[in-house]
Design brief:
The structure is a homodimer. Chain A is α/β, with parallel strands linked by helices. The first copy, chain A, has three domains: about 70 residues, Arc Repressor Mutant, subunit A; about 140 residues, ATPase, nucleotide binding domain (Nucleotidyltransferase, domain 5, 2-Layer Sandwich), CATH 3.30.420.40; about 160 residues, 2-Layer Sandwich (Nucleotidyltransferase, domain 5), CATH 3.30.420. In chain A, helix 2 crosses helix 3 and helix 6 crosses helix 13. The first copy, chain A, starts with about 20 loop residues before the first helix and ends with a helix. Chains A and B meet through helix 1, strand 12 and helix 10 of A and helix 1, strand 12 and helix 10 of B. The structure holds a DNA duplex (30 and 30 nucleotides).
Amino acid sequence: MNKRGGGSSRPGPLLSPVGAARQQSLRTHNLALVLRAVVEAPGPLTRARIAGALGLTRSTASDLVDRLIAARLVDELEPELVGRAGRPGMLLAPHRGGVAGLGLEIQVDHLAVRVTALDGSSLGEAREAGDHRASDPAVVARSLGRLAAQVVTQLPAQIELAGACVSVPALLRSGSGIVALAPNLAWSGVDLVALLCEQPGLRALPIELGNDADLSARAEARARAVAGGTAREEQSFLYIAGEVGIGGAIVVDGEPARGQHGWSGEIGHTVIDRSGPRCACGATGCLEQYAGLDVIRRRSGLSLETTVDQLLDRERRSIRVRRSLEWASAAIGVAVATTLNLVDVERVVLGGVYARLFDHLAPGIEREVRSRVLAARWAPVEVVAALAGPDSAATGAGWRVLDGVVADPARWIAGHSHP
Amino acid sequence: MNKRGGGSSRPGPLLSPVGAARQQSLRTHNLALVLRAVVEAPGPLTRARIAGALGLTRSTASDLVDRLIAARLVDELEPELVGRAGRPGMLLAPHRGGVAGLGLEIQVDHLAVRVTALDGSSLGEAREAGDHRASDPAVVARSLGRLAAQVVTQLPAQIELAGACVSVPALLRSGSGIVALAPNLAWSGVDLVALLCEQPGLRALPIELGNDADLSARAEARARAVAGGTAREEQSFLYIAGEVGIGGAIVVDGEPARGQHGWSGEIGHTVIDRSGPRCACGATGCLEQYAGLDVIRRRSGLSLETTVDQLLDRERRSIRVRRSLEWASAAIGVAVATTLNLVDVERVVLGGVYARLFDHLAPGIEREVRSRVLAARWAPVEVVAALAGPDSAATGAGWRVLDGVVADPARWIAGHSHP
DNA sequence: CACGTTTGTTCACCCATTGACCTTATCGGT
DNA sequence: ACCGATAAGGTCAATGGGTGAACAAACGTG
């Protein structure tokens, strides 16, 4: 009944390794390729440049582009103004008036909604503070539905939402729309998609769930691509979402690796010292007990209500705060080093509150990484602060929806040309 | 001059995500798909069954199969004997008389060579003990070349070697044929492919290098597939190669994840206790210092020359040996738990000497995993001993070569139909 | 203004899959 | 022994979709 979780294919190998390639798979594949090139393009594109980049003939590329324009997935702008000989090409860009993705975010201390267009622009957003520790899922779902309805009703008429994706700080039962365990919300076994489907603002929209760190990492990958980092190495990194809990995601070629059940990247429970302090997860010596935000506050001698701004302010005067950050950074460094030895990427992105504490954490992390990562000698590890702005999980959730369309524009076209 | 390392494409997405799909890509892709189905088939296959499994029409599947038969990649056996109505199908199997892969293995205490046919059978093998700690790469290359020549010259005449792959316990500079660092051989910056190319037995053969844990894991995946584990979950596991050093590989869908440079899976340098004993890598508290074979020997009060058989023998009487194994197993458990939290697979395969010590290690590992892996409640982790036989790295290396052919049979056919 | 250059478009051609139809081979029932 | 039913393998014209050559359009240069 309420099952509308599935439906979106991941943008990996477009011709799935199990299913055979039919002849129409060719066009399916190439359409996706062209659309992806337009969406992820660092600079301006033309039909000819697409053909060159993908190895298609100009005729084929042109044909595919025309189909995407007809489907309002790609927009044709003015002719390129060039200082060289030859006919100027027509500039192409992702269409910002057609399809869009609805991103919803549930966090411990707030809810957020953002509608993202194919060109990456935000078509509408909303935010609502609130304490969701030990909350009632039904109540939270209702609040989120209201917030989403606010945003959706104000969208321009031509916008078509391809679906919604909800970021949850939790382990999810993949595909089912069920939250297996959200420690900080104290939810377990909650059928969140079913709850959200009943909200007036979200009817008739396919809804899926996503892990907050995964989705933030996705937004981060996109942000770095826009900033010019489209190279494969730049699109591979370890993302760390530092909050009260510590989440993580391993991003390879712009796509977070989800693992067998979608539970990978739980860097917060990397062991720093097996005889260390007991963790809420039941184990001992987990990173979270060294570098979680509440632990940093406690070791700094500050109350748990202290904001990050206040923490940064105190840091200038209090040696205790400095010590506490150093202590945390060394632990993060150990966990990062362990992780990099296991997954071999050469870039670490600090997100969440860690992005704001970056200047105080990076040196300690780098020190541990230099001495503990085997490969650091040949491929120096870079530690950087996240680029993605606030509510990055909501942004990433919107992208997640759009990625479903980008990965298979043929299906989107088929579903909308004759409705 | 000596550059013949490259040339083999990895068997992931067959239509590469960057290059566009041309119309001949269709056949390339489908040929690979059919051949892969035949090679990885758990049971007997016929043309019709292939068509059904892959979603091709019987005519297309039949056409593709005929091409593979002509290229001597697939063998047509006798008709299937069936108890049902209808014409019996012709049974298909990977050809064992055509293409083969030459697998070479360099280990601290021995060299090994094995030629593997498409059906997984060994067409020839050799082994030579020897201590290669702090050895001269040129000398080792010469020995290995001799050993390979022995095996190759005795192959049946119809066998065509598609290439050679060398397993090295080392970090490799991917694509270049250079060993960046092999701690236990005391090699660094060695152009091993160049050295091997000069050996008489290996002329005119493309040679590539591979990490020993990666290649053993590949052999393990194949062994499990033959044993009936072709399901995606069964083909995803964490492989641990326990020897003096501890290597590892994260296998997803039968393919070891290599990471950005091919250095992933270094589980031996997972941190157990950051203030633990100093490791050869420069860091402190690495798993190797708790569970490396030499450490187990030392803590057992045995000399470094003690064999595993002797160790197992002593275990029955000496409480000190038992304690030492328990100590090691707890540390392995911590490292495994950390790894599983990061990469989310639900199966751990103990290889190398750990396979032989399995009964003494598994309980301790399982105990730590149960209490430290977040997801263990929903997806119980299974710890099993490796199935792949001795010299599994050489077997895996042979498979690595064959995988290059299986991933793109069209290229193999093109290169051999009109030589 | 003629020429070279590059882009976008058109169209006949070619390649690989498709699906209908046929043949072959076995089993079950009469 | 014969006749359907069932299923596998093969044949061939049709179709879908990329290819490449040719051409027109639009811009710089001399």
